[in-house]
Specification:
Layout lengths: L10 E6 L22 E7 L15 E4 L5 E5 L2 E7 L3 E4 L1
Antiparallel strand pairs: 1-2, 1-5, 2-3, 3-6, 4-5
Length: 91
């Protein structure tokens, strides 16, 4: 599916991994107990700032902070838009 959003400056669009549906022992986790995912895949990147080129590229798997980014939904798919500096690591 083509990404119809282009982040500006030093922002990236990340698709968070889906929350775990059940534990390793097979117990199903209710929606109220699921933790927000802190991992995701970079779907689009901005051009960067004049003095700070972008380090991330499309397809990178990353870790980000628990309260990082702005949640958006496009065609029923949830994404986060955040500054590259809010990304903690490439995994």
């Amino acid at each position: 599916m083509a990404m119809n959003i282009k982040p500006l400056a030093d922002r990236v669009v990340i698709q968070p991994n889906s929350p775990e549906e059940k534990t390793s022992s097979g117990i199903y986790i209710p929606d109220t107990a699921k933790e927000k995912q802190l991992e995701g895949k970079v779907m689009a990147v901005g051009k960067g700032l004049p003095d700070f080129p972008m380090t991330l590229k499309k397809g990178d798997k990353v870790l980000f902070g628990k309260f990082s980014g702005t949640e958006i939904s496009i065609d029923g798919v949830d994404y986060l838009i955040m500054k590259e500096s809010d990304v903690l690591a490439i995994i």
